Amino acid sequence: MAQNSLIRTQSYVNGTWVNAASGETFDVIDPATGAVIATVPDMGQADVREAIEVANAAWPAYRDLTAKERANLLRKWFSLILENKEELARLMTMECGKVLSESLGEVDYGASFIEWFAEEAKRTYGDVIPANTKDKRLVVIKQSIGVVAAITPWNFPLAMITRKVGPALAAGSPVIVKPPSETPLTALAISHLAEKAGFPPGVYNTVTTSKNAEVGLELCENNKVRKLSFTGSTAIGKLLMSQCASNLKKISLELGGNAPFIVFDDADINAAVKGAMASKFRNNGQTCVCVNRLYVHDKVYDEFVSKLSDAVAALRVGNGLDTNSQMGPLINEKGLNKVKHHLDDALSKGAKVIVGGHEMEGLFFQPTVLTDITPDMIIAREEVFGPVAPVARFTDEQEVIRLANNTPYGLASYFYSKDISRCWRVAEALDYGMVGINEGMISTEVAPFGGVKESGVGREGSKYGMDYFMEIKYLCFGGIN
Ligand code: NAP
Fold first, then answer.
1. How far does the centroid of ligand 1 lie from the alpha carbon of residue 213, in Å?
2. What are residue 441's phi and psi, to 5 degrees?
3. What is the pLDDT of residues 105-133, one digit of tens each?
4. How far apart are CA 374 and CA 381, in angstroms?
5. 174-191: per-residue pLDDT in tens?
6. Listed residue (232, 82, 62, 22) closest to 148, CA to CA
């Protein structure tokens, strides 16, 4: 087993570290080396049902804590996460492959949601409504929703958990985290820190599993779970939404994207290259807000492609634990095959490789720039989720907006221009939940994260994030003389 003081190899339920009732386990693999890092419990339906029971039993006492008491627990957890930043980051790099500098950044980013919602816990204000008759008084209060299930992806092993459980715990709801089978160790490590922070038994639970279908079904169909928050692929998001329809469970979905990145002829080209590099190649191209298609105005196309290609050619690929590396491996064979498939399809339809284009050892792939992209290529329509930057040429603003919006997805989008009128015009016309204007890095705990169309339902983070974990209750006081 790998060395890291935060490795825990049991699930965490009701304040206790437990194995699966069946005794079954599964291995956690380092994508950079193929080595087994650790083995964790493979929980089944009965195990997760038990976790739901204990979480539900813990709810009344937890929601009755004052907002300040809950905020203090969150603040302790936040501090413990930051105190353990280096170990957490190393663990994250080991199981998901992202380079150490990015893992360190994710610890800060992930912790920021806990800090933010610790503060928000104290501001879940209601309303007093001017009454419609003299003998009534109308009041609105907000209450915790009940047990929250959080199903999260491997590409942000820490932050996708804290972005969900931060507001849930702040609002007074116990949580059940179902981390991905690729990266359960970071999830268990922060469960250990939640235990140290002093959350009461049953309030924070983490169930590791590879039996996603049965565990997912139980989380959706069990009516003691009052809210499901999911981040992952659109296909699984649709499945979970249909399963939750059986009891009309409240649901938030943060799903796939297909982000366009537009460079207008009046853009600062150096800034655009910097933004494209940050957004395209972060986490090896495996983020939901990653640039997926670049549209560059004909007048600046050659300059942009040349500068982008130089920057991409200079990227150093290697094991994320090596501080020299700027890009790690893809998460698994399936991810690697997807990149190869998108590339082969684009090349067969006339795309040209300017830089990269080849697989390396194991799950590593060369950072790649492709040009002459056309809308019929798969890479122009679907998330490649890998280190390939496909560039297309355009001449007309209306046409590029049409191309950018011509997708079922609507998560992040980006464009570069120095013309303020164009900036407003294009920002308003892009059919996306988030728009980066002269900026490639848009994620922060203080702003609402989420998508339109098939990229999801709801928003996470910011002052808007809390409401998705609370119910609004209307109180009508009658007979007031
Ligand atoms: P995924 O296959 O949908 O997996 C996401 C989570 O769902 C994992 O925990 C996964 O477990 C679990 N899962 C799989 N099948 C399930 C089922 N039948 N029932 C319940 N849970 C199930 O997504 P992925 O490919 O790992 O992640 C990448 C996707 O997430 C991309 O599309 C990306 O754009 C999206 N994403 C979106 C955001 C956002 O905020 N919008 C952020 C990050 C990623 P296993 O891992 O064990 O299969």
1. 12
2. -115, 105
3. 999 999 999 999 999 999 999 999 999 99
4. 10
5. 999 999 999 999 999 999
6. 62
Place of tokens 């800060």: 108
User: How many residues are recorded in the chain?
Assistant: 481
Q: Tell me the average pLDDT across 357-368.
A: 97
Q: Which two tokens stand for residue 481?
A: 């003389």
Q: Is the CB of 383 under 6 A from ligand 1?
A: yes
Mean pLDDT across the chain: 98
With beta carbons less than 8 A apart as the criterion, state whether 420 and 411 touch: no
Report the candidate in 161, 170, 162 with the shortest Cα–Cα distance to residue 142. Answer: 170
- Whether 335 lines ligand 1, by a CB cut-off of 6 Å, is no
The alpha carbon of residue 355 and the mean position of all alpha carbons in its chain are separated, in whole angstroms, by 29
Nearest to 237 by CA among 6, 12, 458: 458
Do 174 and 149 contact (CB within 8 A), yes or no?
Answer: no
pLDDT at 39 over 90: yes
Residue 233 near ligand 1, beta carbon < 6 Å: yes
pLDDT in tens, 148-182: 999 999 999 999 999 999 999 999 999 999 999 99
Residue ranges and CATH numbers for the domains of the chain are: 11-255+455-475 (3.40.605.10), 259-437 (3.40.309.10)
Query: Are the CB atoms for 450 and 257 separated by under 8 Å?
Result: no
